[in-house]
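A quick word before the example. In earlier lectures we treated sequence and structure as two separate objects. From today on, think of them as two lines of the same record. Here is Carboxyl transferase domain-containing protein written that way.
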Amino acid sequence: MNTTLTSAPVANTVQEGDWAEDLQELNERRAIANALGGEEQVAKHHALGKLTARERIEHLLDAGSFGEIGALAGAVKYGADRKRASFTPSNAVVGIGKIDSRRTVVAADDFTIRGGSSEGSVSEKWIYADRYAWEYKLPLVRMIDSAGGSVKLLDKLGHTKIPGYPMLPMTQLLGVVPVVGIALGACAGLGAVRVGASHLAIMIRGKSQIFAGGPPVVKQALGIDIDKESLGGYEQMHRYSGAVGLAVDTEEDALKATRRFLSYLPANVWERPPVVSCTDPVDRCDPWLNKAIPADKRKVFNPRKILKSIFDEGSVFEMSPDFGGSTITCFARLKGHAVGVLTNNPMIMGGALTRSAALKMARFVDLCDTFHLPIVNLADQPGVMTGADAEREGTISAALQAMHAIEQSGVPWLAIVLRRCVGLAGAMLSPLHGPSGTSLPNRYAWPSARWGSIPVEGGVAAAYKKDIAAAEDPVAHRLDLEAHYHAISSPMRTAERFGVLDIIEPASTRPLLCAWVEDAYQATGRRLGPVGRTMR
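And the structure line, produced from the sequence above:
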């Protein structure tokens, strides 16, 4: 573990002149602030396998780029001589540094001082970090390691207040700059809000928990005994609720993921997404793709292997992999250009659009649209999930939310049907109208593609139920009907009527996308700035 502290500047020279005493006091206070909660508390923190706030900042930012703000903020007690008797720094380290040479605002809770709780906080300090990101339109990274609020804060304030921070532009930030929230411990109440109010929330498996109220609050309110991990750990926050978009094993992994996530996004919505150098040939054709989809419809395939084959080498960055797993959402690159990617995963729930998958899709489309990333949809969509549980969960409502998100997105789309494209979910290939009402239907297909309002097998069983039952050989009659309708549903017949732009050889998918992405980036450059959305 790297234990080199990122420090606020402290001059070590002996002070002379009229201001010697003041400069010496300044240096002493900065030295105390650099030491965080002191050697003993820092040692305890390290013993838990955790980095300090300053170490986290050092790992996140480009070397030597951090400029601290508010190092002198904290609680000071003065003696009878009106001089400082003690100084306890505020338990947040904030400032501006660089990630990949781009200015970025960072705010890191310091757990070594009062467990990062609001009791040891100067709230104006971390609020200022958010406001600075808003004012100067810079990316923002919050590293949260906070025990939450404390009733002891009332003694400090001498009064209560209506909850909330009037000067905190938390919602507004999400519409203009990338925001990352990292949970680095148990984050309750406000800490949970600061993690969740982001475009990507990250947690550490087994070490991070997120909840509105911790176990003591749950016990008091509901009479239930529960531990932190069972209440707000990985299973609850990432796999089941989707409140957290990424779960990793170590703090270093979380900070690396943060840097990588931000590399796909512009600094703000008035800028284009960044383009990086690419050594992967744009005309690369992978013959394996021609056999990636099994002819037997009962067999599944690995969609992640297809993504790896099509996009720039090593460029796929997946989000929310364990939530709504029947749909995959990720960033990737084509010829160095960042794009958003949607695809179905037939290995989970057959790739059907579940409630969680629909919520995940809507959030991802909004993210791409906000920051002007073109979207590629590689579809194998069997339809909206059915069954009593799916209906009870409100799957249709969630699916409509995803559909509205797609329709309201103004970025360029290119959709390729790999296999199935059925029903309401199948209609969500790309915007049919878009915000302008003239969205261009860039839709292609592989030869393995099939589509329709309902699956042929289910449709035959429903429409010909009596005929099949009355047939001399019901099975043979059913198979003959299915063969008839499968022939009609051939993608060739759709292409004949320009229902799709083309049916392409799968191996040629990458060259097609690399040619399109240049046009897509030209289009996004003409619609920079905040996006507007109607009610859904």
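Notice the following. The longest strand covers residues 413-422. We will return to this example when we discuss secondary structure assignment.
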